[in-house]
Amino acid sequence: MKLLIPAAFGLEAVVKRQLKAMGYEKAPAENGRIAVEGGWDDVARINMFIRSGERVLIEVGRFDAKTFDELFDGTLAVPWEDYLQKDSAIFMEGKSAKSALGAVKAAGSVVKKAIVTRLCEKFGLRVLPEDGPRTIVGVSIFRDEVTLTLDTSGEGLHKRGYRCLPYDAPLKETLAAALIDMTYYFPEKPFADIFCGSGTLPIEAAMRSLSVAPGKSRDFDFMHWRVADTSAHGRALEEALDKETPERKVDIYGADINPRAVETAKIHAARAGVGKAVRFETADMRRFSSDVKRGVLVSNPPYGQRMESVEEAKRLMADFGKVVRALPDWNAYVLTSLEGFERFFEKRADARKKLYNANIECVYYSYLSTKPERRDHDDV
User: Fold this and answer.
1) What's residue 377's pLDDT?
2) Calpha distance 300→307 (Å, rounded)
3) What residues contact 340, with CB distance under 8 A and at least 6 apart?
4) Is 0.85 surpassed by the pTM of this model?
5) What is the mean pLDDT of the chain?
């Protein structure tokens, strides 16, 4: 099967590296998706281990269409009976760009009508009951080329299962994992987030350091499909448990000035299985310092949308800059949407990368010390 792993804007290279580390050498990117070849074991493994991919999709059809008739006929030609069941509950998702068929909702309705028509004919039914397992069918149209997919993940892969308590402006888990992968962080180094909020960055750093699979505690849609080899999930879970290194010594620290945030972070870390690996503290970031060399600081500090005023955010970033300048041997990374951040931080970044956090355009700033002796990943 051809498997497609969507990546958020700017994270395609990170997802490709993660797939390569899993053994998928051939993984070309196309329209924001990374493609690999594989079977049900690969579906299970990628869902289990990928840290920054959004979902795992199976491509079931690809054809050109500029009209709804062409879209219907192309969809009807796909052997849906090989993938769906008589009672599959079919949900539609779609997007279209630079194509004649720009009405996404209408295109989804046409595709579903074609699927239902074919399944009713093949299974000898007048009506599909749709009271069985969920299957999300994706319709992606780009430059008049239609790609039809089945979503094996169900809920987005950022939903690890450990974040159970609400908190303002949480950082998406897949993005947090990518931010860490775009640094010089290794498990032997100290890691700190001094604006930790509900703890996502320190938790993801701990999960990576202790080789905790991000998908080990959740359910995936393909596990309920009769067409799938559902035993593949058990093999992936066994592999995940074998790879864990819970006894590894790590130095991971998270701090926030809000006591409620810190308590929430502790609960989330415990649910993620890394409660003993992260030290959380209620503290003002201005107090942070370290005598240890070669540490890594990664933070997503509050900014305009998350504070009472932009002026308050500017003053906070000025103080944050002083903390970072007092750690010349550390690498610091900051994700923010604050315009003119470097001016307020009073330090020019060594590198910048545009990313999106909850549809807010941000920049990921890298402040590097002298180059480390070795590196696991290309830096931003």
Assistant:
1) 47
2) 13
3) none
4) yes
5) 93
